[in-house]
Write a structure and sequence with these properties.
- β1 and β2 form a beta hairpin.
- Helices cover 34% and strands 26% of the residues.
- The chain has two domains: 143 residues, Fructose-1,6-Bisphosphatase, subunit A, domain 1 (Fructose-1,6-Bisphosphatase, Chain A, domain 1, 2-Layer Sandwich); 110 residues, D-Maltodextrin-Binding Protein, domain 2, CATH 3.40.190.
- It starts with 6 loop residues before the first helix and ends with a helix.
- The protein is an alpha+beta fold and 274 residues long.
- It contains seven helices and 13 strands.
- The structure holds magnesium ion.
- The site of magnesium ion has 6 residues, from β3.
């Protein structure tokens, strides 16, 4: 029998527990530490990612929830007796490089879905861990920033727009020709280094679009922000303007154009040369 789960409350508990778990590590990292590597099992950055992930898993276990974890860190893990009941896609820390360099822009991202597919995500949380800002969405119920309903911007002109673009890839020669005309017309280009949070910035009108056409971003990084964008009634599609139909898997990559409103979305899609 399926019981009613208060996901909103549980996701906030997950976020609070993540915050508690990572605070001791952050104290050790309170000075910029450019020499810290990523990936070696025992290094402090890996410890932060794993501590954050464990905080999510332990919170869900405490509530006796059976689920399949889909995580950037540990891959796919079945938890409980009926792990197909819920799929929980987690990027424990989005923006790890920012965190380790002391750049105050990193987040945690948690999405709950009925299947391991992006279009079945029904609850989402993205939390800016530095500024204490939490974005949440529930399918059909809108998107919120610290409990305030959010809406995207109405900006349509590229002259005025602030547009995020992730160009961190060795395939940059391939991508530059695709975006040259857009870059030429855009006055304010940004990349802040935590894609989940940058998508939330489109959702709440802080920025007007965010583009990642590298084919490099993992589905785990944007699963939660996807629902927040959708529920804020901003737009997110493939670079060809098609719906994003992808599976949720640590190895599944995704490219997208997120835009505040249909007009600026159309302008951007028309300017991208694929
Ligand atoms: Mg991460």
């Amino acid at each position: 029998m399926t019981r009613k789960i208060n996901w909103q409350q549980i996701l906030i508990q997950c976020k609070n527990n993540i915050q508690n778990q990572i605070t001791p590590f952050l104290k050790k990292l309170n000075k910029p530490q450019p020499d810290l590597g990523i990936g070696a099992g025992g290094d402090p950055i890996k410890q932060i990612d794993l501590a954050a992930e464990n905080a999510v898993v332990n919170t869900l276990k405490k509530h006796k929830i059976s689920f399949t974890l889909i995580s950037e860190e540990s891959g796919i893990k079945a938890c409980g007796k009926t792990p197909d009941e819920h799929f929980v896609t987690v990027d424990p820390i989005d923006g790890t490089t920012n965190l380790m360099r002391g750049i105050p822009f990193y987040a945690t991202s948690i999405a709950v879905s009925t299947k391991p597919r992006l279009d079945t995500v029904h609850k989402a949380l993205v939390a800016d861990l530095h500024h204490g800002v939490t974005y949440m969405a529930q399918k059909g119920e809108g998107a919120y920033r610290n409990s305030q309903k959010i809406t995207p911007s109405k900006t349509v002109s590229l002259e005025e727009a602030v547009i995020g673009m992730d160009l961190n890839t060795y395939k940059v020669q391939k991508i530059i020709p695709q975006i040259t005309s857009l870059v030429k017309k855009t006055k304010h280009i940004r990349h802040l280094g935590a894609n989940a949070l940058e998508l939330c910035y489109v959702a709440d009108g802080t920025t007007d679009a965010f583009i990642d056409i590298r084919g490099k971003l993992r589905s785990t990084d944007m699963a939660a922000a996807y629902l927040i964008i959708q529920e804020a009634k901003a737009k997110i599609t493939t670079p060809r303007g098609k719906p994003l139909r992808i599976r949720l898997h640590p190895k599944q990559k995704v490219s997208f154009i997120a835009a505040a409103n249909p007009k600026i979305q159309k302008t951007i899609l028309n300017m991208i040369r694929l």
